[in-house]
Amino acid sequence: MFLFRKREQRLTVGEARARTSGDRPEAVLLDVREKSEWRAGHASGAVHAPLTGLTAGAALPEEAQGRPLAVICRSGHRSRQATRLLAARGAQVKDVEGGMNAWAAAGFPVVDERGNSESIA
């Protein structure tokens, strides 16, 4: 008998945007990049929680607690790590394929720390 590892559930950037935007979003877009990356440019409406803090045991920001999460980083590596970590903590979480690189390439809004239109660093 072979055991198959359950494939992680992932979202495309289009699915992530649809689920995390609008007047009543069903999920929170959680950006797990570092502070300098966040400041340079992040998805409009995203919540910031660096992976380094999460791995050190930091709690999720209040606006992300108890909500379904779509986790994003630059390219997808850190968000997969964060997805496994948060799932182990009991969060309802999915990884965003391609990260902010794919988000920006799709033409979705990116803002800097002041809310001005920007590009990702």
Question: Brief overview, please?
Answer:
The chain has 121 residues and is of the alpha/beta class. Helix content is 31%, strand content 17%. Strands 1-6-5-2-4 form a five-stranded parallel beta sheet.
Tell me what portion of residues adopts beta-strand conformation. Answer: 15-25%
Number of strands: 7
Largest sheet: 5 strands, parallel
Mean pLDDT: 90
Sum up the overall morphology in one term: globular
- Count of helical regions: 5
The N- and C-terminal alpha carbons lie at a distance of 47 Å
Quaternary assembly: single chain
The main sheet orders its strands as: 1-6-5-2-4
Approximately how much helix is present in the residues?
25-40%
Which regions contain 5 or more consecutive residues with pLDDT less than 50? 1-6
Protein name: Rhodanese-like domain-containing protein
Domain Rhodanese: 23-112
InterPro entries: GlpE_sulfurtransferase, Rhodanese-like_dom, Rhodanese-like_dom_sf
Organism: [Kitasatospora] papulosa
Description:
Residues 23-112 form the Rhodanese domain. It comes from [Kitasatospora] papulosa. By secondary structure, the protein is α/β, with parallel strands linked by helices. Helices cover 31% and strands 17% of the residues. The chain is built from 5 helices and 7 strands, in the order E-H-E-H-E-E-H-E-H-E-H-E. It has helices at 13-20, 35-40, 51-55, 77-88, 99-105; strands at 10-11, 28-31, 42-43, 47-48, 69-72, 93-96, 110-111. The protein has a 5-stranded parallel sheet. Helix 4 links the parallel strand 5 and strand 6 (93-96). The protein starts with 9 loop residues before the first strand and ends in a 10-residue tail after the last strand. The relative contact order is 0.23.
